[in-house]
């Protein structure tokens, strides 16, 4: 999740911290996540001709457009990045993202350096690092990346993002992302939450950026995991109502004993396959720290 959070910071501006993300500095602030783009390379006998690809982040703005592929895999992404050079951005207009002319600048984003061939690579750990900036064709983007090389990302307000589209492939990732949302269901005066509401709350600012099909898959995944929680772990306290909301049962009483029992069972559910007793459960609200990003 750190990789995704730090990547999104590159589109943001924090006036109180005098921080301008390099993508924002280059005039590229409109982005979408894992949307389908058509592959337009017409090379003879190309097996991928006519296929659709869904890069992690596509962004467009006044100076051009880019594709950013995020990965923690230690294998090179050079082959995939080469294909991304031939994607068509015209379909971005479906998502209210301005289309641009020509091929995109293709970058990879990682938490540590791995050779991704002839492509610019961003290392998005505590300190922002840029490798092979000379491979960027957009001069304004290239200059903003070089100028930002070495800046700290660790001092920025933490984005309260609990899910990304890739979460659907990780049972524990979805469950961990749901912890705070489940505990909110038992807060005083809570009316419960639907799976869709939990998905949008966990995606936070990404909710309107994600391909709707990926959002629906995430909602179904949350519905499935919440069914396990309500049926196998919190049967005495949590129910799914007729209108699809997960809410406390009528017999639930907000007492220390019952809160403790719920906490213990939610913890067992979230870490049923991997125990992490040091997990920081309380999400940080960036709107209360250094001002919300612009």
Would you kindly provide a brief summary of this structure?
With 294 residues, the chain is of the alpha+beta class. Helices cover 31% and strands 17% of the residues.
How would you describe this structure in keywords?
294 residues, alpha+beta, 2 domains, six-stranded mixed beta sheet, three-stranded antiparallel beta sheet, disordered C terminus
Number of strands: 13
Helix content: 25-40%
Number of domains: 2
| Helix-strand makeup class | alpha+beta
- Using the CA coordinates, give the radius of gyration: 21 Å
Number of helices: 8
Estimate the global geometry from the Cα principal axes.
Answer: elongated
Write the element-wise H/E pattern from the N-terminal end onward: HEEHEEEEEHEEEHHEHHEEH
Describe the structure.
- The protein is an alpha+beta fold and 294 residues long.
- The protein is 31% helix and 17% strand.
- It has a 6-stranded mixed β-sheet, sandwiched between helices. A 3-stranded antiparallel β-sheet has the order 11-13-12.
- The longest helix has 22 residues, at 212-233.
Topology, please?
Elements: H1 2-9, E1 13-14, E2 19-20, H2 22-25, E3 28-33, E4 37-38, E5 52-53, E6 57-61, E7 64-70, H3 78-84, E8 105-110, E9 120-124, E10 128-131, H4 139-148, H5 171-185, E11 193-194, H6 195-203, H7 212-233, E12 238-240, E13 245-248, H8 256-270
Parallel strand pairs: 7-8, 8-9
Antiparallel strand pairs: 1-2, 3-6, 4-5, 6-7, 9-10, 11-13, 12-13
Helix pairs in contact: 5-7, 5-8, 6-7
